Amino acid sequence: MFRECPRKYFWNYYGAHNGWLRDAPAEARAAWRLKKISNLHMTLGNVVHDVAAEAIQRVRGGGDVPSGPELIEAGRSRMNRAWQQARQLEEWERSPGRHPMMMEFYRGTGPSQDLVVLIRERLYSCLRNLPASESFREAVESPQVEVKEVDRLDFLDLEGVKLYARPDLLYRLGDAWRIVDWKTGARAAGHSAQLRIYAVYLRERSDLPAGPIIGRLEYLSDGESISVPITDRDIAEERRAIQDSVEAMRTYLAEPLRNAAKPMDQFPLTDNRRWCSSCNFFELCEDELAATENTGPF
C-alpha cells in the first residue's frame, strides 16, 4: 500500500486512527468506515481460506475428509450470508466495525451479473480442488501443523518493529517446513515475496525447531501449485527489504518515536491515477484529484 499510493497509506494507517470514537474528526470517522469496506473478490478469498482451515482442523481431529460438494455448500452458505449482510447499508453505517460491507453495494446496487458468475465459478473451482491439493493432503498427515485462525494475528519483534504475519498453513514433513498460501485468483509476480516474508516470521520463532523451508503457492481455481525453496540468503535479503521499507515509511513521520505522521498533504497522491476510482478512500481524495486532473487533449 505504501508503494502503491502514499495517500492511501496515510488514510489507512493514520487518517483513520481513532475514527471509531464518537468525538473523532469527521475525516477520521469517514476514513475508518471506508477502511472497513471489502469487495466480492476479497470476500471470496476470506471464505475459501476459512473453509480450508476448518476442513484441515476437522480431518486432523479425526473427521472424514470433506468432499468437494460439502466444501462448496459451506462456501456458498458463507458467501450468501456476506451478500445479504452487505445489502444492509443502514446496519453498516451504525456499526462499520462489526457489520461487513462490500464496495459493490456501497457505491452501487450490487455486483454485475458477470461478476457474480465469475465469483461463483471461482468459488466452486477452488473448493472442488482443495481436498486434492498437495498441501491439503500433506497437512492432514503431518505431525506438526498450524492453520490460520480467524481473528488471530501473530507478530514478532524485528529490531524494535512489530512484524505481523500468519501463514495460511504451516506444517512440517521430515525436517522441512512448508509455508502455504492459498490463492483464489490468478498468478502474480509478488506472490513469492509474500512467502519469503512468512519465512522471516518462521525463522524468528523460537518455539519451533529449525529446518529447511519450502514455500508453496496453491492456485486453487485451476488446481495448480508452485513450490519454491526459501534459502537463508532469501530470508536475509527479505529482512533487509523490510528494514529498508520501514526506514522509507519513517521519513513520513513528524515524530518517529510516537509514530506520529506528518500532515496529510505530505503524503502525495499516486501518479498512477488508473486505480483511484476503485480505491476505498476515493471520495476523500476526489476533489483534489479533480483539481489536478489534466483536462487538455494531450
Number of strands: 9
Task: Name the strands of the widest sheet in spatial order.
Answer: 1-4-5-6-7
Which regions contain 5 or more consecutive residues with pLDDT less than 50? none
Bin the helical content.
40-55%
CA gyration radius, whole angstroms: 21 Å
Give structural notes.
The chain is an alpha+beta fold and 298 residues long. The protein folds into 2 domains: 12-132, no CATH class; 143-253, no CATH class. The chain has 11 helices and 9 strands. The protein has helices spanning 6-15, 26-35, 40-60, 68-86, 89-94, 103-106, 113-129, 134-139, 191-204, 232-250, 282-292; strands at residues 144-147, 154-158, 161-165, 169-173, 176-183, 213-219, 224-230, 253-255, 260-261.
Task: Quickly list its features.
298 residues; alpha+beta; 9 strands; globular
